[in-house]
Amino acid sequence: MAQIVRPDARYQRSYLEAHDEFAGEHRDGEGLWQLEADPATGFAGFDFTREGLEDPDEFRRLVRVRRADELPETPRPGHFVPCTFLWVVDDGDDYVGSIAFRHELTPFLLEQGGHVGYSIRPSARRRGHAGAALRQVLELAAEMGHERVLLTCDEDNVASRATIEAAGGQYEDSRVGKRRYWVPTVATNRPAGAAIS
Hints:
This protein is of the alpha+beta class. About 30% of the residues lie in helices and about 25% in strands. The protein has five helices and nine strands; from the N terminus they run E-H-E-E-H-E-E-H-E-H-E-H-E-E. The strands form three sheets. A four-stranded antiparallel β-sheet has the order 1-4-5-6. The longest helix is centred in the C-terminal third of the chain and has 15 residues, at about 130-145. The protein is globular. It starts with a strand and ends in a 13-residue tail after the last strand.
């Protein structure tokens, strides 16, 4: 079964292979590679490239950026919220996708983006990875004190709709071409954060 893990440099090769496989397709839950500085918040900005991420040191920098984003004190652009970025790995310990949990909802996230975004690489789809990763993130959200989270998907994204509904998502409405679902979180007996390595 797929597992969610914190970004780690040991996934460099399969991460880059997955990036090539996406071939420009939007990757919700992955995070941006380029983001301009915001002097008002002290955010320095970053600019990662596919070529640059071949360098192990640059890839480790990407990992540090992703892992730091969940900390409230990390500088970020003024309209961004803390976000826990996680990678989805399969039984062979290869990167197969990303899933992100946004800790708060801005007006835009309430309207369109939701708390959770995810994407699975094309060759790994239809194997249950998205559903398994979503369940684990719903456990994490419960550990962080959320009773329910908002997920959205494009109106025509049948696979994502099925994943959200299978997780207990209750359809609220559609806005700007997005279906909006409230999904109950999943309580566990683990200490906070114990689910993720």
